[in-house]
Amino acid sequence: MSTTRWFIGCALLLTLAGVVISLLGTKPDKAATALMLIGPLTAAFLSALSPAFMAPLLRGWAAVIPPSRAGWWHLARQATVHRASQSAAIINPLVVAIALAGGLYASQGTASGGDTLSTGAVVLLLGGPLLLSLTGATVTLFMAGRHRNHEVALLIASGGTASTVMTAALTEAVIYVATALMLAVPPVIATGLLGSWALHESPSFGLGAVAIVALTGLALILAAVVLSNVMALRKNVVRTVADE
To answer: Nearest-5° angle of CA 13, CA 10, CA 210?
Structure first.
C-alpha cells in the first residue's frame, strides 16, 4: 500500500458517502443515476485498497479445503497467495466488471419499479468498459508467463503430473472469479437496498447480470490458464529451472 493508494481510497470513500446521502429525497428518475455510481465507486475503492487485504482474503477463504483433501486445491491456493500482486491485477478488473453490470441493473430495476434495460442499451453503456475489464484480467495471466513456466517445471521435476498441473491451474481460475464475486456482489446488493430505502420501492439486485459477467470472465480466464499451462508443459524442465 502506497500513500497515493490510501489517498485515493479515502477520496473514493468520501465520494461514495456523498452519493448515498444525496439519495435522500431524490426523485426516482434522478436517483437511478446516483444509484448507478455506488457499484463502480465501491469497486474502485476496493481496488485501491486491494494490496492491504488481497493476500489475507485469498489465504483465508481458500483454506476451506485442507491440503490433505485436495493437493491440487492447495497448489492453486498457494500460487494465488504467493503472487498476490498478480492475483489482485486479475481480480480487480473482474470486480469492476461485475459491479458495473450488476449495479446498472440493480439501480435501474429499483428506481423504475422493476423495469429492465434493453440489451442494446446495456451494450451501448457498458460494452466498452466490460470488454476492457475482462480483457485486462485475461491478459494479465499471460504477462506472468516466465513465473508460470518455472512453477510448472518445478512441479514436474518434483514428481507432479501434467494432470495435476492442469487441475491446479483450472482451480486457480475458479479462485480468481470466486474472490471477485465475494467483493463485487455486496456492492450490487447494497445498490438495490439503498435504492429501496431511499425511494420506498421493492429492491432489484441485478444478479442475472452478475452471473453472466462472472461466467464470461471465468470462461476467458479458464481459456487463458489452459493455454498458458499447455505452453509451459512444452518447455524443457531442466532448462526452465536452470534459467530461473
So the answer is: 40
